[in-house]
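Forgive a beginner's question, but would it be possible to get a protein, spelled out as residues, together with the matching structure tokens, please?
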Amino acid sequence: MIRYLLNKMILSFNKKYNYDVQYQQDILQTDLGAFLKFMGFQTMSTHSGALPAAALYAARIRAIISEDCGPCTQLAVNLALEAKLDPGIVQAIIQCELAELPEEIALVVRFTELVLTHNPEADALREEILALWGQRGLIAIAFAISSYRVYPALKYTLGYGKTCTQVVVNHQVLAPKSH
């Protein structure tokens, strides 16, 4: 019965976002305990702290692009648009056009890129983030970066990964820029 209810929840997500949920269904059918742990992980990935939505999605989108998963990137973009982010801001995040972003969002994009490459130059930017949003904001960015990398890794490991070639923002097709 619980598998049936959880599957209905998965299918609802599929319908709402037009997102392939087969990997989730496979986990659910194979190992209920593993699926319940996956659901617990999802609470981490949705954590926002007190961070503004644009900053949060800047970290999420850049992290997911780094892992090269087209459907996951599109889902993150759709969630950002659903959160009422300006499509121009979302497009600039995808294409890493720092000059087109508000200063605080460009800071998060730069910081995320440095963190993803383990570049020690992230330390100076971390201090700027702490000055803007405090430890709670930094934790939200840390959760965004780390958790959004998990989905593509999980999907590729299970055989469901797809290479990111294009993303659509309000009917405009974009090629994500990765560093």
